[in-house]
């Protein structure tokens, strides 16, 4: 799908270029409900919306949703190299991959390394915060290795696993590396 087609489909659903799959689905359902039947919003201007016009709008909504779903499935099916385009943004312009392929085996995942991976992917901390339903302060603390503000180890492991999945990294390796550094800090305390 060309960027122009993607933009047109997103415009039909009244969405921006960085819309997430859940935002696309919600917009689709909202617009389908709005134009599908008798709507309190459209009642005052019902004469301006003939059944034919309404049907055409509904068909555009269906087509846009189907095309965006297909594009999302194709993107998920494609292999995601280390530091490739951001997975959460539908229609976002891809960034250049900085190293291609998996991260080096000897790479130790620390907070700054996780931040670097996130930035290379072009993912904003706020996007991850919304996706994982975590406070931005906590995510920032993880990246800056401000261990004193982080939760207990058992909760931290869950957050790291989810963060690694967002960044398309191996969760077990990320958790092991980060927790080793966390335990070292804790033992010195």
- Helix and strand content put the structural class at mainly alpha
CATH topology of the largest domain: 434 Repressor (Amino-terminal Domain)
Q: Which percent range fits the helix content?
A: 55-70%
End-to-end gap? 54 Å
- The total strand number stands at 0
Provide a count of the helices: 8
Name the helix and strand elements from N-terminus to C-terminus, one letter apiece: HHHHHHHH
> Mind describing the biggest β-sheet?
none
Overall pLDDT level: 79
- CATH homologous superfamily heading of the largest domain: lambda repressor-like DNA-binding domains
Unreliable runs: 78-100
Question: What's the number of structural domains?
Answer: 2
Query: Approximately how much beta-strand content do the residues carry?
Result: under 5%
Whole-number radius of gyration? Answer: 21 Å
Report the principal-axis shape.
elongated
| CATH class call of the largest domain | Mainly Alpha
CATH architecture of the largest domain: Orthogonal Bundle
Would you summarize the structure shown here?
By secondary structure, the protein is mainly alpha-helical. It has helices at residues 3-12, 21-36, 51-77, 111-121, 125-132, 136-143, 153-166, 171-188.
């Amino acid at each position: 799908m060309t960027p122009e087609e993607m933009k047109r489909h997103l415009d039909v659903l009244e969405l921006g270029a960085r819309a997430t799959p859940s935002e696309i689905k919600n917009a689709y359902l909202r617009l389908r409900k709005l134009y599908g039947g008798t709507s309190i919003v459209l009642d005052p201007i019902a004469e301006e919306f003939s059944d034919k016009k309404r049907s055409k709008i509904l068909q555009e909504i269906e087509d846009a949703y189907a095309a965006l779903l297909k594009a999302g499935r194709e993107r998920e099916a494609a292999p995601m190299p280390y530091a490739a385009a951001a997975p959460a943004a539908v229609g976002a312009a891809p960034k250049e991959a900085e190293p291609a392929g998996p991260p080096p085996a000897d790479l130790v995942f620390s907070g700054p390394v996780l931040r670097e991976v996130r930035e290379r992917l072009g993912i904003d901390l706020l996007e991850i915060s919304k996706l994982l339903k975590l406070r931005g302060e906590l995510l920032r603390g993880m990246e800056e290795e401000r261990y004193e503000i982080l939760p207990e180890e058992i909760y931290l492991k869950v957050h790291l696993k989810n963060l690694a999945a967002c960044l398309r990294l191996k969760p077990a390796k990320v958790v092991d590396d980060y927790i080793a550094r966390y335990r070292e800090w804790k033992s010195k305390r």
